[in-house]
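Quick one - first record:
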Amino acid sequence: MLNGIIDIVIIIWNLLLEMSPYLLLGFFITGILHILLPKEKIYRHFAKNNLSGIIKASLFGIPLPLCSCGVIPVAAHLRKEGAGKSSTLAFLTSTPTTGVDSILATYSILGPIFAIIRPVSAFIAGILSGLVSSKIEKDEHKEISKTFSCTICDINTPHNHSVYSKIKGIIRYGFLELVGDIWKWLAIGIFIGGILSYFVPTDIAQKYLGNSLISYPLMLVIAIPMYVCATGSIPIAAALILKGMTPGSGLIFLFAGPATNTATLSFVAGKLGKKSLLVYLLTIIITAILFGLLIDHIWYSYGKDISLLSSGIQMLPQWIKITSSLLLITLIVVSIFPKREKDVMDIYVFRSPK
């Protein structure tokens, strides 16, 4: 019993070691994007239900680290501020399935093929859902919001910030707010990944999950109502793939799991309509299956070469992985206690330079 617990802890720790450096880099890049992209510019591009607005909405959603629940208030605000229904649906479809942090984490665990196909499939799904929505539903014209919004402070009149203030904003959003938003699902994903790696027998996984006729619909049934973030889904999918599940089935879980849950489906139906809900669901299912077939075709064409599911990077020394893991754990602990988070920011980050 004790040996089993130790083995599970080791597996979980190894997963954390592989993901942490890339997660931290992803958090930093996301913080930069948050500061550089004022909201009023975003809304202005999404107002029209044309191909340009749909492509922009889908493309913009890819780097954002928003889960299927976190994307709801953002999409609601976009809609309220003048974004078209089709552009909003495109944003809802592409955003939760990927993000800068999850793309880098995907690369670290599952290699470049998954890291490339995952955002590409999200982008195409966003465009498809938006285009179909624009063809079957008419949308009323909405005025574009002209309200200035600052990504650093609450002042709603045009102004500028110093480089120092922008750096503080990047750190606050990327390493505190964002970590606080996703740490639970990241921890759950890594924990479940470790459990599956230890307990799921390889022969059973290969026998049942290795058959796409079984694993594809099974992954869809599990993923659609389930709440899991784009990053937290990676260790779960990786554990099942390494046990014998087809990579295409893993991609279906990585795509459909973060894209949908009961809360998101309810929001789409209530705010955008039942037709939009149908378009949303069918687009996610069809795109997930098509790209699952694609990645399985690549997998079988190369003789099930396991190196295809590896990043191939050996340049990161162990001390960087350990340091990154300890730093990530520290950030998670800090985010659990809001008061402590404020104290840390005041002492180390927001202290005025002498």
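second record:
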Amino acid sequence: MAELYPCSPRIEIDELPYFPRLVEKARLFAAGDLHPELHDNLGKGMDLWTCQFLGIDYEELKKVVLEGASTEDAYSWAQENGLKRPDFEKNWFCSYLLNRGFRDNLSEHLAMRVKESGFEDKEGIYSFCDYIDADEGRA
């Protein structure tokens, strides 16, 4: 069994970050290749927030992905079956997701994770997206 990390949470589709990571996590888990550190949070946290923003159910999206949908096809399915959001809501959500942990109610949790990982001296970890990229070896 491989222990792989999905793509960065910053990778976008249609200017929406995280969705490609969400899809890749589902694929890797089904194949038995997703890094075990990520198993407990499948369908939770950023996975859940992204699905809630799109107005879709995580389990339904996962089913579409595991039936063979590409990331683009899964996103099209989400657009067809979810909520229609105006651009200003999408812009707000993107900022929210990319900056989660920066001077908000998760700041203390982020600081704890940074300390646990030994990243206190690492520059540029201001949000959970920064932390994920650092933790998975991308930054």
